[in-house]
Amino acid sequence: MTNKPAIIQSDNTILLEVNNSSYEEARDALSPFAELEKSPEHIHTYRITELSLWNAAASGLNYSDIKTKLLKYSRYEIPDNVLIFINEQMKRYGLIKLIKSDGNFILQSTDKLLLNEIVRNKSIEKYITEYLPSGDILIKPLYRGHIKQALIKSGFPVEDLAGYEEGDPLEISQRKLMLSGREFALRDYQQSAVNAFYRGGGADGGSGVIVLPCGAGKTIVGIGVMNLIKSMTLILVTNTVALRQWRDEILDKTNLTADDIGEFSGDKKEIKPVTIATYNILTYRKNKKDDFQHFSLFSSKNWGLIVYDEVHLLPAPVFRMTSEIQSKRRIGLTATLIREDGLETDVFSLIGPKKYDIPWKVLEKSSWIAQALCTEIRVQLPEEIKYQYSVCGEREKFRIASENEIKNDVVKVLLRHHAGASILIIGQYISQLNKIADRFKLPLITGSTPTLEREKLYKKFKTGEIKTLIVSKVANFSIDLPDANVAIQVSGTFGSRQEEAQRLGRILRPKVENNKAYFYTVITSQTAEERFAHNRQLFLTEQGYNYMILNEEMFEENYG
């Protein structure tokens, strides 16, 4: 037996010892092909899955690479069935290829028996035009996405090499100087992400997902891809504030003018060479029986590129439309590929596999994002509401624990401790946030705050006129608040790891002076909220963050 940090088990799980000198090195080696499942204090559990291996294969890893890494860090002999599983799944990506020949879309494979089996699959046969004498399969052009979805559900991810339509040209170039006069160029990792997606413009480049931390410049990566493709572009974003931030970044960093960029939102319906639309407006319909009124946007111009910002939030109706526009180049941008609805395979088959990912701690060490110090503060449930908590259902238990008013006393101490800092107070429940706003006389942004008012408050926060801002979950996504360096999370969406990623990301943009950010989560101990908090902590652990847990007494000692 050696002192290696990993124990690989026959159920495809990997136990990783945290207090091992090789822990960090092993964690970074495992993360490209294994998913973190549990992260208690001493032993973290990873799982090797079909999808994690297919993403690894799509990013260029092979079976030999993975086996070498496992051998390097495994304390004991690797079970044979695990190596067989890895080898089989890595071979599956690319076993079926989709190509285009003489205008026809054809499924090919070196395994003709597999194609013969596919032809007889009830969920797939409706998308097939003809079983060719060569053993290849001719499919209906409009069902390029549908058949990829169906095949991945059958355990066979398709490598799509059918290429893309060029779209109408767009005269775009990157500025060397931004509007402020400062120099502009893509950072090395941003350029690597662009190159990994584009792959020289060949058939294997043009669809996929880029995973980067909030604050690391996912918008800049999108602009870099636009500059390479030079074609009319449709950009889909989470909300109107994000829409206008994209517009401002494009104007600041390219030669495009305001006349080139259209806003397609609840306020405006402009269609221009670059059009930025919100998911909400695309999925709007008067009632559930009506068609989506604005899906015509996808065919309104000959787009050459579609950008899906925060792709992990892509609504199901947009997935359905995306399955029908597979001839368009597509890039998804996100801080985490985790979807709470489990539709990661749809992201893989319809947007594309993960093309680029970089550990957050790597960027932190290079000072591209702020150093984050994460602290969980646990408070008790007041005696007077313990009975009410004990007799209600699980959902109500979670809300009672989340809205525990003792948390407001913790907020008071943290506001005093970080006086002068740029502070965001973030929560799930509007009634809770209203009470905090009233008590501390602070501005509040919720879903009902008009867009113009939101933009005014964000601007005041950015300029320092407002030092503390309370925000609901509307600020989880695509909000650029570069000077925020303290976040106090008073409630969240059950155990959402993607929300944890977004909220931490709000404070990670690099700071001019002290490049540190402080992320506090206040929870009620020994309640449903504490149980869900363990799942949220998975995200922090995945990214390599250590977090401190303080009870009320410890908190008073450190901050009182």
Task: Walk me through the structure.
With 560 residues, this protein is an alpha/beta fold. Helix content is 37%, strand content 19%. It has four domains: 87 residues, no CATH class; 65 residues, no CATH class; 171 residues, P-loop containing nucleotide triphosphate hydrolases (Rossmann fold, 3-Layer(aba) Sandwich); 196 residues, Rossmann fold. It is built from 21 helices and 23 strands. The strands form four sheets. A seven-stranded parallel sheet has the order 12-13-11-14-15-10-16, sandwiched between helices. Helix 7 crosses helix 8.
Defining key terms:
alpha/beta; Rossmann fold; 23 strands; 37% helix; 19% strand
Any idea what the shape is?
A: globular
Task: Please list the strands of the largest sheet in the order they lie side by side.
Answer: 12-13-11-14-15-10-16
What's the CATH C level of the largest domain?
Alpha Beta
CATH architecture of the largest domain: 3-Layer(aba) Sandwich
- CATH fold descriptor of the largest domain: Rossmann fold
The SS-based structural class is alpha/beta
The major pleated sheet works out as: 7 strands, parallel
Q: Compute the CA-based radius of gyration.
A: 25 Å
